[in-house]
Amino acid sequence: MAPALFEPVQDALSVPLSNHPSLIAPEPEHCPGPESNLAGQGSACAGCPNQSICASAPKGPDPDIPIIKSRLSGIKHKILVLSGKGGVGKSTCTTMLAHAFAANEEKMVGIMDTDICGPSIPKMMGVEAETIHVSNAGWSPVWVADNLGVMSVQFMLPSRDDAVIWRGPKKNGLIKQFLKDVEWGEMDYLLVDTPPGTSDEHLSVNSFLKESGVDGAVIVTTPQEISLLDVRKEIDFCRKADIKILGVVENMSGFVCSNCKHHNQIFKATTGGARKLAKETDVPYLGSVPLDPRIGMSCDYGESFFDSFPGSSACTALKGVVQKVEEELGIVCDQA
Fold first, then answer.
1. Which of 261, 288, 281, 286 is nearest to 88 (CA)?
2. Closest to 199 in 3D by CA, of 299, 262, 114
3. Which pTM value belongs to this model?
4. pLDDT for 1 beyond 70
């Protein structure tokens, strides 16, 4: 039975980041960050309306980091799912990985949806209409199954169609609450689904999890060069942020006809695709997952593709990706 609310969840959205000063103008492009030791002193600060505010703001370590570390101490593996390009199926891959890990009923799995402006995980997991329950122990994840939980801003919105129109500081504050206030408990895997790019959400997750430890990132791409172009930037971001790259997944890699089993390249790998990219950048290649319309259908209906189509080519490919991720994590599993 869900615990009773001791405060309205919507009120929690108005709680600011503890160390973030109240700014009177948007942060400029090369802002060092209001909490940075260079705040108000960097070259980008010259002429900024916030300069005096940032210069006088408290500096030093975030006092919430030890709280986050303690809250997440029961989670064995924390995995970021990244993509430089939008529309490559990153959130889909996150849900597929979660269902695959959770297929072992002895494993506890969580998904943290940090795509604040486009939270699609609840829909894909079939829990879009749920809300967050709050107890004295913290926010409770929404449970898809006994061993699979989800946390997303979508659960806080009055309507499924409401837009989240937030600047960086408010996004950062909510991400911190997902890490600090959610009662994740003992878990084997926490998958962090991120929006495209290398911006606020990615920097926040990485900084908040620095002491807790991130096991690595799975980077999702499609075969064409226009996607690989941004994935190279994502790889560069991971290296600059000191995030281990578990590997690259090539999604939508060809189409296998369910009748004749013929393989067609819908998105042609004009420059060699993810396999060549992985070799050039010296990162692991986790495998390729073919296009399958039933994956999209499963996401639309909030069902597990693994349970519905276990014998499909895409399911076999996804199982191979999961196996390689576990190998990169140093996990030895019995093969079924």
1. 288
2. 114
3. 0.82
4. no
